[in-house]
Amino acid sequence: MAKNFDVVVIGAGPGGYIAAIRAAQLGFSVACIDAWSNDKGGPAPGGTCTNVGCIPSKALLQSSEHYEQAEKHFVDHGIGIKGLSMDIGQFIARKEHIVKQNNDGILFLFKKNKVTFFHGTASFSGQVEGGWSIKVSEPASEDLIGKHIIIATGSAPRALPNLPFDEKQVLSNDGALALTSVPKKLGVIGAGVIGLELGSVWRRLGAEVTVLEAMPQFLAAADEQVAKEALKSFTKQGLDIQLGVKTGEIKTTSKTVTVKYTDSKGEEQSLAVDKLIVSIGRVPATGGLNAEAVGLKLDERGFVAVDDECHTNLPNVWAVGDVVRGPMLAHKAEEEGVAVAERIAGQHGHVNFNTVPWVIYTSPEIAWVGQTEQALKAAGREYKAGSFPFMANGRARALGDTTGFVKILADAKTDEVLGVHMVGPQASEMIAEAVVAMEFRAAAEDIARICHAHPTLSEAVKEAALAVDKRTLNF
Ligand code: NAI
Question: Counting atoms of ligand 1 from 1, which one is nearest the CA of 279?
Answer without folding.
Answer: 26
